[in-house]
Amino acid sequence: MFNNFLETKTTVISKIALFVIPGFVALSTTLISCTSISNTNTADPKAEPVGAKTINFKTKLLRIGYQSSGDLVRVRGVLEKRLEPLGLKVEWAQFAQGPQLMEAMNVGKIDIGSVGETPPIFAQAAGARIVYLAGRRLGPNSGKGSAIAVPKGSPIKTLADIKGKEVVFQKGSASHYFIIKALEEVGLKYTDIKVLSMPNVEARGAFIEGNIPVWVTGDPHLALVEKLYGARVLRDATNIGTPGGYYVGTREFAKENPELLRIILEEIDKNGQWAEANRKEVAKLIAPVLKIDLPIQEIISGRATYRIKGITPELMKAQQSVADLFYNEKILPKKIDVQEALLTPQEYAAITPPTLISEK
């Protein structure tokens, strides 16, 4: 399982621990046939447009994983508004970070979720039956919300100074890839640092107390320690060369629910379009959910990216390079082929809305 690869120092919150089952457990989601609401009643504001075909879904419940950093799709309820009139319920499950989310997916607790570029690679190496559904669209501010940080007053002045120091981050997360690439820039190797794996939700308090010399983290934690505690950034993730994050799902769910996935991805991207045009409104929505002061949340929302893009050969080539890096660094025990975590071109055509194809 993933714990063998990640060697996490501490146990995650009890809600997540329930998902960690020794050994590989086959996915066992029960699928129920149902039919969407008829499109004949145009007086019903919830009805689909006249002439739209009846869609047959294989499930009545969509289970989505999200991370402790929050999820605007969940906060705005856009999927519920679109899917509940079609007879589907939406169930959300929160996880500390991407590796914990992927483990829950592996044991059949969730159907889809959003993670960085690294967690799917470790999940695939552990034998999870996952597929890439869509990519995260990068923007001009991509990378500014992730950084290698040190406490205020730290004697560490440059990235090269972290040689021999303890560096804290969640193994198997996007931070894992980030630190390796950043070390390369200053002529250091991964073996030149002392790695301690810890989820952001646990590491933040230790960093604030001065017990973590170097922390690789991202928003909202990064913005909080910068603005409230004077943390210094040695290097943010700008121009790191990442393929970005993904929406990932179980292979069974993707193959059995293509029309449902098309609706989901369409709504997620429409939500992203709205968010990138209304960043101050996003901050007002998210700040009370994460219990963050509005000015700090405005910084977070201002440098976040919200839109998604379709899966392409070019994107997967970049993802393969990330997987190869982990193998070459002897972090992954075996070489993986990301092509094995893809659908067929015909299946991608069925799940991918036109907006994800036409816009880069």
How does this model look, in words?
This protein is α/β, with parallel strands linked by helices. 39% of the residues lie in helices and 16% in strands. It has helices at residues 2-6, 14-17, 72-76, 78-83, 98-106, 119-125, 174-185, 200-208, 221-229, 251-256, 258-277, 279-290, 294-302, 313-328, 345-351, 354-358; strands at residues 34-35, 56-57, 61-67, 89-95, 112-115, 130-136, 146-150, 166-169, 194-197, 214-218, 232-236, 246-250, 308-309. The radius of gyration is 21 Å and the shape is globular. Mean pLDDT is 86; it is low at 1-52.
Give descriptors for this structure.
360 residues; six-stranded mixed beta sheet; alpha/beta; 39% helix; 16% strand
DSSP helix fraction: 25-40%
- Proportion of beta-strand residues: 15-25%
Return the average pLDDT rounded to an integer.
86
Please work out how many helical segments DSSP would assign. Answer: 16
Radius of gyration equals 21 Å
For the sheet with most strands, the description reads:
6 strands, mixed
Q: Numbering strands along the chain, what is their spatial order in the largest sheet?
A: 4-3-5-12-6-13
Secondary-structure element string: HHEEEHHEHEHEEEHEHEHEEHHHHEHHH
The computed structural class is alpha/beta
Q: How many beta-strand elements?
A: 13
Task: Explain the layout of strands and helices.
Layout: H1 2-6, H2 14-17, E1 34-35, E2 56-57, E3 61-67, H3 72-76, H4 78-83, E4 89-95, H5 98-106, E5 112-115, H6 119-125, E6 130-136, E7 146-150, E8 166-169, H7 174-185, E9 194-197, H8 200-208, E10 214-218, H9 221-229, E11 232-236, E12 246-250, H10 251-256, H11 258-277, H12 279-290, H13 294-302, E13 308-309, H14 313-328, H15 345-351, H16 354-358
Parallel strand pairs: 3-4, 3-5, 8-9, 8-10
Antiparallel strand pairs: 1-2, 5-12, 6-12, 6-13, 7-10, 7-11
